[in-house]
Specification:
Blueprint (H helix, E strand, L loop, with lengths): L1 E5 L5 H12 L22 E5 L2 E13 L2 E11 L8 H13 L6 E5 L11 E2 L16 E5 L15 E3 L5
The structure holds coenzyme A.
């Protein structure tokens, strides 16, 4: 049975291994990591267990979109040997459900253009976001947590940046 729980300290090593398997050892070179200088949102760090074995991970970071704090979805990863069974989908659905309890209006993802629309994500390309480095524009997708949030955004000049933790 697949179960989703909030990540604990005990899961850290397994999540790290999963990240390496899914994204390789050079994953921090991808521009999206420039948006994650601090820690993820603790309540939105989820681990998926298949028969008590941790096999999936989804985390969210807070980022700035212009002067608004929004959520960045990801990284999302599922162990290769259990992919295609809906575990990734369940993690995203549960993560978005929990995200709706927060104060954020929007979630942004840099992800596969074919994977996220089924969860309500729509292309962000028309907003011409200023992203910290290279990204294929079609990977950027928004999902509203509060209806109407996208309509209230300016259509240009929105800078996406990470939140550096206070020391
Ligand atoms: C992407 C990932 C998390 C999906 O996990 P999963 O448990 O296999 O996902 P699900 O079983 O819920 O969904 C499988 C569906 O997603 C599709 N899918 C899987 N990877 C995809 C991708 N990279 N792009 C588009 N669709 C993808 C499958 O074709 C399948 O489609 P179907 O439901 O129409 O048959 C997993 O493949 C993974 O860890 N990949 C490596 C890490 C990665 O690329 N993560 C970022 C995703 S943007």
């Amino acid at each position: 049975m697949f179960q989703i729980k909030q990540q604990t300290q005990a899961d850290s090593a397994v999540v790290e291994e999963l990240m390496i398997k899914a994204f390789g050892p050079n994953r921090y070179e991808r521009s999206v990591w420039a948006l994650r200088p601090g820690e993820p949102v603790e309540t939105l760090c989820l681990v998926g267990y298949d028969d008590d074995q941790p096999v999936g991970s989804l985390r969210f970071w807070e980022i700035m979109l212009g002067d608004e704090t929004i959520l960045l979805l990801g990284p999302l990863a599922v162990e290769p040997h259990v992919r295609g069974q809906g575990f990734g989908q369940q993690l995203v659905i549960e993560g978005m459900r929990r995200a709706r309890f927060g104060r954020w209006r929007l979630v942004l993802v840099s992800g596969e253009p074919d994977y996220y629309p089924k969860f309500g994500f729509t292309p962000a390309a028309s907003f011409g976001l200023e992203w910290p480095g290279f990204v294929e524009p079609e990977r950027l997708q928004f999902c509203e947590l509060v209806p109407g949030a996208l309509a209230s955004l300016p259509k240009s000049g929105l800078i996406v940046r990470g939140i550096t933790p206070a020391v």
